[in-house]
Amino acid sequence: KNMEDRNQTKYDKAMVNRLARATGHLKMVKQMVEDGRDCSEVLIQLAAVKSAVNGAGKEVLKQYMEECVEEELEFQDKEGLGKLKTGIDSFIK
Questions:
Q1: φ and ψ at 2, to 5 degrees?
Q2: CA distance 27 to 64
Q3: More confident of the two residues 72 and 47
Q4: What per-residue confidence (pLDDT) applies to 7?
Q5: By the 8 A CB rule, do 42 and 29 touch?
Q6: How many Å apart are CA 42 and CA 30, to the nearest integer?
Q7: How far apart are CA 12 and CA 82, in angstroms?
Q8: What pLDDT score does 32 carry?
């Protein structure tokens, strides 16, 4: 693979669905806040958003590990490995 091909990730339909679900939960939170809904209900929906986003992040990380890390190690791609470290740091904050 050339460098451009390696930077192209193919996400599956399940990833798109995960993000759609997270977006739907977040829209619901916004509507609940606008409607003045009970704080506990809002917090439950926020937890659902957080869970959906974390799940999507885990899947992206798994895909990255499967597709890219082996190549980056093989080709000693320090820039690619640096990007992975930065991404992990950002995700787990």
A1: -85, 175
A2: 28
A3: 47
A4: 56
A5: yes
A6: 9
A7: 25
A8: 97
| 56 touches 18 (CB < 8 A) | yes
Tell me what the pLDDT averaged over the chain comes to.
Answer: 85
Question: What tens digit of pLDDT does each residue of 32-67 get?
Answer: 999 999 999 999 999 999 999 998 988 888 888 777
Report the amino acid identity of residue 48.
A
The distance in angstroms from the start CA to the end CA of the chain is 32
Dihedral of alpha carbons 87, 88, 89, 93, sign: positive
Burial 27-65 (b: 16+ CB within 10 A, else e): ebbeebeeeeeeeeebeebbebbeebbeebbeebeeebe
